[in-house]
Amino acid sequence: MKPLKGLILSGGKGTRLRPITYTSAKQLVPVANKPVLFYGIEALADADIDEIGIIIAPETGAEIRAAAGDGSRFGVSITYIEQHAPLGLAHAVLTAEDFLGDSPFVMYLGDNLLRDGVVELVETFRTQSPDALILLTPVSDPENYGVAELDPDGRVARLVEKPKQPKTNLALVGVYMFTPSIFEAARAIEPSGRGELEITDAIQHLVDKRLRVDPHIVSGWWKDTGQVADMLEANHLILDDLEERVEGELVDSRVDGRVVIERGARLERATVRGPAIIGAGAQLVDAYVGPYTAIGPDVRIERAEVEYSIVLEGSSIEKLDGRIEASLIGRNVAVRRSDGLPRAYRFVAGDNAEIVIL
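^ thats the sequence. predicted structure below, dont judge the formating
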């Protein structure tokens, strides 16, 4: 088998993560202070895939180019491929055909996270040489996913996109491995009811042509980070594997458990209970940060408490009576209580924001 290439899909509008994604690509929202996209690039690099194409959208492509660069920081070479409209995953494959050529490849959805990466899966694909290898995982709500049905030999027999009455609970994970046969399949299918070329239909075409499509059941966790609750759970899962490291400055402060304090961070009369990460340049003063929290670079928290949350770069949280929890706070956001009277709530909130006062 020829050397594999990588294809990461990083287009899409991220409507389920608004208002954060009005100003940032969803694949660049950080989990444990690292953009989700970077986990996918690193997973491919770990599998010795050094040529990676990234599908970008016109609206967010410049931001993704600036963040990931030419790939040298990851030990890979990155080529950017613009998909002018979100016309489906199979359409994205066709958009990348010139880059992929006649090489087999791994397609990785840029907002997905796989705990165990793809090293073993890529090796299986290389050694067993199926026409396609798809990743599956049991889910409790298969009607919301592409679902696979297997034949008695364990091969893929049928794929259905978001079935109303699923016959199995095996959902497609956002990682696929293909030979160039997928191009003919993508050209052979028609747009679905939502006007997209579905990758499930293209894979079904391979099955119908009696090509070999092998499944692999994912044993470790997998997360699609498309919604706020998913982002927070992914943050939780990654922080569970955190190794303690304290490089910042602690003044009359306490750190309990697996905590990372990045260089340049300063804690004064603060308590951090892990697993948690405090980004470079962050300042915590008379503050509490609880488990499963990621505080981004240059964040300031003063006289406030935050737990099970993600706070992005440059934001400030000050003088709050209650605790912030289960929250995703964007970049350069200011949350504070005024010292003046009368006491009242004042909000400047973007479209689709959610404000909950308990």
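The two ends are 58 Å apart (CA to CA).
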